[in-house]
User: Fold these one by one.
Assistant:
Number 1:
Amino acid sequence: MKVMIRRSEGQLSAYVPKKDLEEPIVALEKESLWGGWARLANGWVLELPDMAEDTRLPITVEAKKRATAEEEE
């Protein structure tokens, strides 16, 4: 799914246009953001693509919805 990642007031967020959903990113697998998972405040876990650490935001990427926090536990 297409996801726009942006940083606003020091907080990363993800916007999913198809769902008209914008949620803060509350946890990351990798500090660099790219190439791991990102957990959204609503519990969704998205797999983000590998990209350079200095990739400029905002950016739209293709991400996969892995699971929700409840499904992982």
Number 2:
Amino acid sequence: MFIIDEKDREYRFGDSGPKYLMKGPRSNFAVVQFQAGQDFKAHYHNIMEENFFILEGEVDIIVDGVSHTLTAGQLIHIEPKEVHYVINNSNGPVKMISTLAPYQEVDKIDVD
């Protein structure tokens, strides 16, 4: 058992990207934030499935070339090997939860 406070962790890119509250041993759990216009490179996972639950704002998540606009309260489930790209095309920040499972230390493959 453990407790982690979000304020004790930092986003990967200063004010954006993932902020991991837990990495392994069975899953990852992160708070993810993107400011207006920011994105995260297209990629996929060989083994891990990924879920995004939108807490605040609006975000576009492109999965295998199909764009999905998600808003607060919506969840998107992404299967292994599905290429996904995240971009905030809105005028304000977006905040969401990301979960990845089963945990793999390295399982992200970038796509051009």
Number 3:
Amino acid sequence: MADSSRPARPSLGQMRSSSFLQDHQQYKPPIPITQNIGEVLGNQLDEKLAVTNPISPDPEKVTDSGIIHSIFNHQANPLPSGTPRVVATIFYKAAHPVHPHLHPDVPSNVTFGDKLQSPRVPEGSAPTDDMEKIPREPPAPEPEPLDHLYGPFVSQLCLTNFLQILETLPTPYQRMNTSHRCLDRDDQPHVVEVTFSPPPNPEYLPFDDLRKHENIWRFEREWNVEVVLQRESVFRRHKRLAVFDMDSTLIQNEVIDEIAKFIGVEKEVSEITERAMNGELDFSASLKERVGLLKGVPADVFDKLKSVLTISPGARELCRALKVLGYRIAVLSGGFQPLAEWLAEQLGIDHAVANHLEIDPTSQTLTGKLVPGYPIIDATQKRSLLKSIAAENNIPIAQTMAVGDGANDLLMLHAAGLGVAWRAKSKVQLEAPTRLNGESLIEILHLLGLGKQDIKELISEQK
């Protein structure tokens, strides 16, 4: 007989529940449904109407030059006051489009049986673009041109890529703030100014090395742009002296080559000129050699050349704008004094210094020599003249700007507060502090932080 005082033994059926998951669930049980579909939708509509501004304004994030970019959460005033800043001016090379998907050895119109053209070296990427003078190695593969995919301008993705490159440059890592503004137009800009702070630690990456960094060079090739880096300061934006080379800078000609045409020695003189501008020959020695070939040329050749010389695009407008800003302007030329003075009159330039050719007073022809009493305007002399003109006008060297294209301009470019190699020879582009290969000299004003509207007002001021 079973003992009724003992509890009943549990059976397997009693231990079972409706669900194994329900017995072992780790989440809250579902909320019972007490509303119909109309009530649910009505509550959601009321919540949306109640939230008028989901993002509260934060005035601490506003900077003086535009938009803050960061891959991290922005904190209020993360950088101390007075932190150094660097300005990168990005120019889109609209006149030099990169054709997509073309092997460097194959032209676009090649057909079966055609002879392939020689490989080309990108301008500014090697001391020479002559394939006979570089090592017998295949040319480096070109990066994929991205401007034809994302737009022939400084696109948002182009700017984002540049900011990513900046974030990877400092070693060790430093917190960085960046901002940007468009200098020519807001829609599809060709010139964008990017300010970032702090710059890379100079103990790991000096500023001169930053300007020539491989990652920035590759970025330029990929997006078909040029990047000019400058330390931000009041002297970047407010300069007072501008010094220019003449031949192939303010004018599109090489004067000594034009003179050589008169006596049929253009080829010989042009070859020496090209080698001298590339830095392959001593400038003073090569000048004397070229001048010697001009013996017997009539002295009035300079008057005849005035109608032949072509002033570079934007030179007049650039000089006009600089004069309105109160600049002193000088042309320091390895060419010849009569034409330098003529150009100064045309452009409103204050100082003109060049070489003096000796003239035979009897025959009124060139003797093939330089006047002994005047120094040769070579690289050293150009640098000395830059400093002396600045000193005479009480202008700090930081408030000077120099522009040139040849090897004899390099010392001057490095000495100036801003030195620009304008459409320069390959070696000069590699060694100069900054380089530009634009279509108009007026683009140099963007390096001073001037926008399109600013430039328009300056140019129209003196008309």
Number 4:
Amino acid sequence: MMPARSNVAASGGVSSNKVKYSRLTGDEDGYIDLQFKKSPPKVPYKAIGLAAFLFLIGSLLIVIGALLLAGSIEVAHPDRTVPVLIIGILVFLPGFYHLRIAYYASKGYRGYSYDDIPDFDD
């Protein structure tokens, strides 16, 4: 034999006959204008700072690698000039890419948003 149910809800302990409900008016559809408003974009300053840092370091390494490769700077081991250039390119590309997105998003171009830049505050 099963025990009888009580009128007390299991989670809140509120009796179901004490809850008061009110009907919605017939002309409201349940939506308010505020929920469709876009909030102002959150600018990821740390990510833009990191992108600027990568851009500057990559540019510096590309210039140094190009000077090493051209022979303007004398080196004892010329086989180490190409890796400097390659590392410079690998560091430069993500910095340039994210700075470009940040610039276009700040100017308000269509299709560019700060949401496209990964944020490290999460």
